[in-house]
Specification:
The complex is a heterodimer. Chain A has five helices and five strands. A five-stranded mixed sheet of chain A has the order 2-1-5-3-4, sandwiched between helices. In chain A, a hairpin with a 2-residue loop joins strand 1 and strand 2. In chain A, helix 2 packs across helix 5. The longest helix of chain A has 17 residues. By secondary structure, chain B is an alpha+beta fold. Chain B has three domains: 46 residues, Uridine Diphospho-n-acetylenolpyruvylglucosamine Reductase, domain 2; 116 residues, 2-Layer Sandwich (Uridine Diphospho-n-acetylenolpyruvylglucosamine Reductase, domain 3), CATH 3.30.465; 91 residues, CO dehydrogenase flavoprotein, C-terminal domain (Enolase-like, domain 1), CATH 3.30.390.50. The longest helix of chain B has 21 residues. The N and C termini of chain B lie far apart (50 Å). The chains are: A alpha+beta, B alpha+beta. Chains A and B meet through strand 4 of A and helix 2 and helix 6 of B.
C-alpha cells in the first residue's frame, strides 16, 4: 500500500517551510528529519521526558505528541529560535551557561523552551515556582539544582535586558 | 516506535467530521492527542483513520454561569485546553472542583495541548476529570448522524477506556453543575512522581448532610461512593466496604486500600472546611 502524503506548511522560528509527509509524521520528526532542525531532541517519544518541548503559538508543547499535519497554521519556536537576533545567546541560554545548568545537554532544548515561555508568564518566579516551572522535564545528569538556579538567573537577566517586560 | 499508517481527515464542520466517522468504523477523533498519540506510537492502538477536530470552529468555549438557574455550572467545549480551563477565574468561582482537579492533570506542558473533554471521553479510570464529572453528576453532549444527545455521567463509563459515546459521535461539550451555596469540594491524589498518574486520587462533595467521594485509580472505571451519615472516624472503612481496590504493577491492593483510608478522611474534612 502506498501511504498518502500531505502537503504541510510549517512556520518555524519565523520561516515558512513546505514539506510533504505522511499523516503519521510526528512533529518532532518533521522538525528533525524534514526541516533538519536537530536542536529539538527526542527522548522517550511518549510525552514523559520533555526533551522535545517546543513552543506552539508561544505555549510549550510536546512535539512528539503532535502530528506535523496538525501543526499547520501555528507559529512554532524551537531551541534554534531562542538566540538573540545578533546570534548571541538568549537570556535562558546565557543563564544555563553561567549556572552550569547542563552536563550532557540532551534534555537542554526542552528546558530552554519551557523556561522561555514560563518566564513570559511569570517573570519573577519564587524558588518554588522555578521548580514547578521545570517539573515536566527530566534531566538525568544535573540533579536539577543548577537548572533551578538557571531559571532564577534567567529571570534576572531577562529583567536587566528588557525591564519594560515586567 | 512510530504510529502505524492511518488515513487523515481534517474537517471544517462538525457535520463533515461526523460523516467521516460514520464512513469508517475504525476511526478515532484526534483533539489534544496527549493520551491518543502515545497509544499510537506504542502501537497499542492502530485506528484506520484519524479525524482531526482541531480545525473545527467554535469548540474552544469555556462558559461559567451562576445566576440561580437550574443549568448553573461550567460548560467546556471539546477544544478547550486544560490550561485554559484551569486559568479561568469564572470556572474556579462557579465549580472550584474543576480547577482543583485540573491542577493535578499531568504537567503544564501537557495541559497546554490536552483537552478536558478529550480526557473525559478517553475514559481512563486513572484520570482526574472523569471522576469529577461523575461525582458532580455532570453530563456530556455528543453529536452524531442523528443529531445531538446528552449522556449523563452515570451512563458514560462502561469499562476501562470504554465510554458509551458511539463510534460515529463526537463529544461536543462537557457540563459540570455549579457548586451549590453551602456545599464544599476537595481534591487530593498521591502519585509517585509529580505530574504522574496517581496511585489513588479522591474528590469529595459535601452538601448539607450529603457526603460523596469519587475515586480514581481504584477500580477500572471512575467510582463514586455515598458516605452520607458515616461518622468521621469510619469514613475510610465505609468507603472500602463499597470498593475493591485493584492490584497492578504500580501498587498492591492493600496499599491502595490504605491510600483510600487516608485520602477519604482528608478530602471530606477539607471539603467541609471549604464550605461557602
Amino acid at each position: 500500500m502506498t501511504e498518502e502524503l500531505h502537503d504541510v506548511r510549517l512556520t518555524v522560528n519565523g520561516n515558512t517551510h513546505e514539506i510533504r509527509v505522511p499523516a503519521r509524521r510526528l512533529l518532532s520528526d518533521a522538525l528533525r528529519h524534514d526541516l533538519r532542525l536537530t536542536g529539538t531532541h527526542v527522548g522517550c517519544e511518549h510525552g514523559v521526558c520533555g526533551a522535545c518541548t517546543i513552543l506552539v503559538d508561544g505555549s510549550p508543547m510536546r512535539s512528539c505528541l503532535m502530528f506535523a499535519v496538525s501543526a499547520e497554521g501555528s507559529e512554532i519556536t524551537t531551541v534554534e529560535g531562542l538566540t538573540n537576533p545578533d546570534g548571541s545567546l538568549g537570556h535562558v541560554q546565557q543563564a544555563f551557561l553561567e549556572c552550569h545548568g547542563l552536563q550532557c545537554g540532551f534534555c537542554t532544548p526542552g528546558f530552554l523552551t519551557t523556561i522561555t515561555a514560563g518566564l513570559r508568564e511569570n517573570p519573577t518566579p519564587t524558588h518554588e515556582e522555578a521548580r514547578e516551572m521545570i517539573a515536566g522535564n527530566l534531566c538525568r545528569c544535573t540533579g536539577y539544582q543548577n537548572i533551578v538556579k538557571a531559571v532564577e538567573r534567567a529571570a534576572a537577566l531577562r529583567q536587566a535586558q528588557e525591564p519594560e517586560l515586567t | 516506535m512510530k504510529p502505524a499508517p492511518f488515513d487523515y481527515r481534517r474537517p471544517g464542520t462538525i457535520a463533515e467530521a461526523v460523516a467521516a466517522l460514520a464512513g469508517e468504523p475504525n476511526a478515532k477523533v484526534l483533539a489534544g492527542g496527549q493520551s491518543l498519540v502515545p497509544l499510537l506510537s506504542m502501537r497499542l492502538a492502530a485506528p484506520a483513520m484519524l479525524v482531526d477536530i482541531n480545525g473545527l470552529p467554535g469548540l474552544d468555549t469555556i462558559e461559567a454561569k451562576s445566576d440561580g438557574q437550574s443549568d448553573d455550572g461550567v460548560r467546556v467545549g471539546a477544544l478547550a485546553r486544560h490550561a485554559a480551563v484551569l486559568a479561568s477565574p469564572d470556572v474556579r468561582r462557579v465549580q472550584p472542583l474543576v480547577s482543583l482537579a485540573l491542577a493535578n492533570v499531568a504537567h503544564a506542558t501537557i495541559r497546554n495541548r490536552g483537552t478536558t473533554v478529550g480526557s473525559i471521553v478517553h475514559a481512563d479510570a486513572a484520570a482526574e476529570m472523569p471522576v469529577v464529572l461523575s461525582l458532580l453528576d455532570g453530563s456530556l453532549d455528543v453529536e452524531g448522524p442523528g443529531g445531538r444527545r446528552t449522556i449523563p455521567a452515570s451512563e458514560l463509563y462502561l469499562g476501562p477506556l470504554e465510554s458509551s459515546v458511539r463510534h460515529d459521535e463526537i463529544a461536543v461539550s462537557a457540563y459540570f453543575p455549579a457548586l451549590a451555596p453551602g456545599a464544599g469540594v476537595a481534591f487530593e491524589e498521591i502519585a509517585r512522581r509529580h505530574g504522574d498518574y496517581a496511585l489513588v486520587g479522591a474528590a469529595a462533595l459535601v452538601d448539607g448532610e450529603s457526603v460523596k467521594v469519587g475515586y480514581l485509580s481504584v477500580s477500572d472505571v471512575p467510582t463514586v461512593v455515598d458516605l452520607t451519615g458515616v461518622a468521621d472516624a469510619d469514613l475510610g472503612e465505609a468507603a472500602l466496604a463499597q470498593l475493591d481496590p485493584a492490584e497492578d504493577i504500580h501498587a498492591s491492593a492493600a496499599y491502595r486500600a490504605q491510600l483510600v483510608r487516608v485520602l477519604t478522611g482528608r478530602v471530606v474534612r477539607s471539603a467541609r472546611e471549604g464550605v461557602r
